[in-house]
Model the fold of this input.
Amino acid sequence: LKAFLILCLCVFAGDILHLMTHVPLPGAVIGLVLLLVYLVVRRGPDPELHKVSSSLLQNMTVLFVPAGVGLMTQLPALEKDLWPIAVAIGISTILGMFVTAALMHLINKARRSDADA
Amino acid sequence: MPMLDALWRDAVQSPVFGVAVTLAAYQIGLFTQKLCRGATLVNPLLIAVVLLVGLLEVTKTPYADYMKGAGVLSFFLGPATVALALPLYNNLTSIRKNALSIIPAVLVGSITTCVLAMAIGSWLGASPAVVLSLGTHSATTPVAMGIADQIGGQDSLAAAFTLLTGLCGVMSFSAVMAIARVKDWRARGLAIGVAAHGLGTARMFQLNETAAAYAGMAIGLGALITAILAPFLAHYFVP
Done:
């Protein structure tokens, strides 16, 4: 339970920092950075924090289900622009994913062959 | 069966109802995916959502009653996001070594999703509010809602778009990586984090933990880039 408290405290501290500094990042992402700093200082998580975190992360998808149900109740509002929305999201998501993976792959390959030469 | 009806109406008032049906529907989704040998098009999230919408519809249960319990699950997204620090910590040396390829890849990837979504949306004649909300679709939900609001979009639209984006990213992931011929899990994770934020990252935890660490990092960097870029694009696409 102590581990869960640490996670919640990080979210809370992140929220407060977000309100104070107006950084365009949500509190949870700032909390992530805080926890990362904590881990670096402490040289790694204790076993309990490790256990709690991995069970949360393993089951993260189920946490999106309620939002998905909420979306379905909104569908009538989206109906008018359904096609533009579907095409815009489909193409830009797939191409964005493609470009990111390909670019990192290419740069790594170039750097490796530089190192070999 | 008026007695049963009354019993059901009282039962759904309990917060346990929302949590229990959500977990049950998701279990059915996971099981169905296993039956189909993990086919990515059989998505457990999608199955769970369809089942639940059907259940609420058939039993005439209001969405608000369902959310009394289900909202508890949404709360756990905060601690889960913070927990991403652990895989990041475990991959810190590898991330530092690859910073020179990570930063340009995330930058170009985020610009691609943001610009393309707004361009296609406005080109196909979507209303201005939709076009503006489309720009943030690959950012993590709270960021997307905040920025959409700030540039004249709608936060509820933005939330819906990020969710659709996450589903799209998860379901197309294997095919896209096969076409790109990228087998490196670091690049794969980074890509799905940029394009499909938390939902993509959640999927990586079922496939490869290094990929999940890179995806988690991409959520943060991508959100930052979108936050800076979207306001400029807003002026361009919706003058």
Notes: The mean pLDDT of chain B is 89. Chain B touches chain A through 113 residues (CB under 8 Å).
